[in-house]
Design a protein that fits this description.
The structure is a homodimer.
Chain A lengths: L2 H8 L3 E5 L2 E4 L1 H20 L3 E2 L5 E3 H6 L2 H4 L4 E4 L5 E4 L4 H11 L8 E10 L14 E11 L2 H21 L6 E7 L6 E8 L5 E6 L4 E4 L5 H6 L7 E16 L1 H5 L3 E3 L5 E3 L1 E8 H12 L16 E5 L6 H15 L4 E4 L5 H11 L3 E5 L1 H5 L3 E5 L6 E3 L2 H5 L3
Parallel strand pairs in A: 3-7, 9-12, 17-18, 17-19
Antiparallel strand pairs in A: 1-2, 4-6, 5-6, 7-8, 8-16, 9-10, 10-13, 11-12, 11-13, 13-16, 14-15, 19-20, 20-21
Helix pairs in contact in A: 1-9, 2-6, 2-9
Chain lengths: ~400, ~400
């Protein structure tokens, strides 16, 4: 089993229902929601509006774009009326007709909309844990522009927003903007690739320039175009944590989606799409930042800020003090996971390491005799005794 | 077309993709999220933990409960491996095996978990707009108990939470706790039914006692049991906005889900389930509270608090003042929908009535000459001039 799934299951973050299908348990959902909010903040700052598009897609929309037959991993379902419908693996076929209803003039442009929605893809092999699922929640953003220049400005702004997102979730230093093929209608698309041995992709990284190219465009012509030197490139395994893609007029042409410009002329709307898989991002953090003891969550996405462990007899002095500390921290808005189970210290410490909350606080008779609480950061090996809550707050 | 769908589509809250399948546009999603947060607050207060269960369900889970064949509206999908899987219409088949992994002793009980997740049901007729969809988001809560008494206490607590939820979204006065059949293994289940002519259900209401019975249990025996008198009952059309259901040991028995009690004996876990459809609740508010001019949102779930309309020339005095007011309100945390389109006053007022935001504020040369802004509450007919922002804030 993939390391991410093995750890996330053992630590109680997800439950595997079948290959490529996972449920998110309370711990996992807390991480998920924190990632979601980091992304939402950046999407709103880009002026994009949040919406929620359907999972069932009419067949005719997919026939219109030619993808009903062309897309191998499309789930087709027989509806109650006996008709075939698609289970959405992406949402261009839904957002484009909606945008067409609301955009008709240059005055209506630019526009951008995004969602967090489950995607369904008929993956043949689903062996990478939560990294590649048959169902998975994605943030997908779509933008609509009057001309290339406006599109390019927005595309660059999304690139910057993506960098901030991967920085915020703790993957900034190992995530590279990677040039990929733009398909038949665009020079390049861009991926954000996070270096880790579990990666399914191979990329070639210029560590100084902090950019990379993927396998498909690793050729002389592209390297020259990007001013990269073959001998500066290092081959790495990586996970694609995000991609941004110039759709140009592919979907607007298919749906006859045009606008009227200032001189009354009819022009096709220029589109872009921009994706981030939330489960995959969570799985990548699990893969890339964990150690031999378990998960290691960055503060920004940790399910709780403090893992509070009581040792000693039930209802004893340490248990009472721990409960006081718990309530004090919660009243200050600090999320605390309380472990007051009657288990040996070793088991509770091992579980804390496995779950990977940034700060462990132990209240025991021993710690109280030493004058307070014992704290240990997940990424450090030494514990120390502190006297009061302020030393905890300063570490959050 | 059903009134709820007709209004929600025309006002730009939802887009109809096909019968029973809707996308939520930005205005609709704002209402949706407010409803979600009202429900989430009550679920958390019940001590339930939020999680997010998969949409694809293994066939074997449904075979285990006997519902693979018995449930007519189950979507069955052929997976990539050639196997059949179910698209979840409800989640007992997923939550029960998960709960079994984490609950083994009386010390682990009680527990409760809930989610907001899309459900798929193969409805033959989907003619009620967003009230009855082929895909729809539900809040489903599941609770797990050691004995009947503990279950019943929790069940009553959920009943009260549901009352507060329907009160909070503005349907309290027209929503009735309704006794329904408990199936083969329980005396009653309970529905919350909201009175409106668009309702698909028929209920019999005792308006004084504020309870009702549905068609299936409207018989002498039940009326006697509930201390109701046939002549006090009024027949009404209603929409089922929520239901709570004693599952007893139906699913724990199927999955052999037992716990060890204090004396070491093995006992089946007692379960309950509790649902609210979010789209249906939104549609019910649209049906029940709208008037001949359009939607009427209660403050608690309105997409914005203020609908701010500018009249007069672009960039003129009124437009400037409106922008100042907009920024001032937003800086105080008030959500404002700004309509600065170059349209006639009549059109903009009609749109404001259609969208149904509780407070309309107009800034025009005329209002400025009269000394300020013109305000009108959506549920009142007369507008009045106010001098400053504080009169607006006092109405929110």
């Amino acid at each position: 089993m993939a390391k991410n799934a093995e750890l996330l299951i053992r630590a109680g973050f997800v439950n595997k229902e079948m290959a490529g299908v996972y449920s998110y348990l309370p711990l996992g959902l807390r991480v998920f929601k924190k990632i979601e909010n980091i992304i939402r903040k950046e999407m709103n700052a880009l002026g994009a509006e949040e919406l929620f598009l359907s999972s069932f897609h009419p067949k005719e929309n997919w026939v219109t774009t030619g993808r009903w037959e062309a897309m191998d991993d499309l789930y087709k379902v027989i509806d109650s009326s006996g008709r075939e419908v698609a289970l959405g693996p992406t949402h261009e076929e839904i957002i484009t007709p909606i945008a067409k209803k609301f955009i008709s003039s240059y005055r209506d442009l630019p526009k951008a909309a995004y969602q967090f929605q489950t995607k369904f893809r008929m993956e043949l092999r689903s062996k990478s844990g939560v990294l590649r699922g048959r169902e998975f929640v994605m943030k997908d953003l779509y933008s609509f522009h009057a001309d290339e220049k406006d599109f390019e400005t927005y595309y660059e702004a999304v690139k910057d927003a993506y960098k901030r997102i991967f920085e915020a979730v703790g993957l900034g230093s190992i995530t590279y903007l990677t040039f990929a093929s733009g398909g038949t209608f665009s020079k390049y698309s861009h991926e954000f690739q996070t270096i880790t041995d579990a990666g399914e992709d191979t990329i070639f990284v210029d560590e100084k320039k902090r950019i990379a190219v993927n396998k498909e465009v690793n050729n002389e012509e592209v390297l020259k175009d990007l001013d990269l030197d073959k001998k500066d490139l290092v081959e790495k395994k990586a996970i694609e944590v995000g991609n941004i893609f110039p759709l140009k007029t592919k979907f607007s042409s298919a749906f006859d989606f045009n606008y009227t410009d200032e001189s009354g002329g009819k022009k096709p709307v220029i589109m872009g799409c921009y994706g981030i898989g939330l489960g995959r991002l969570m799985g990548t953090i699990a893969e890339a930042l964990s150690d031999d003891k378990g998960l290691v969550w960055p503060k920004s996405v940790a399910p709780f800020s403090v893992h509070l462990i009581t040792l000693g007899e039930e209802g004893g002095q340490a248990a009472k003090k721990a409960l006081e500390l718990h309530d004090d921290l919660e009243s200050r808005g600090v999320d605390v996971l309380l472990d007051d189970r009657s288990l040996r210290a070793g088991e509770k410490f091992a579980d804390a390491d496995l779950i990977g909350i940034p700060l462990r606080v132990v209240v025991s008779d021993k710690s109280l005799q030493s004058g307070g609480y014992e704290i240990k950061e997940r990424t450090k090996s030494e514990a120390k005794i502190i006297k009061d809550i302020h030393s905890i707050l300063s570490l959050l």
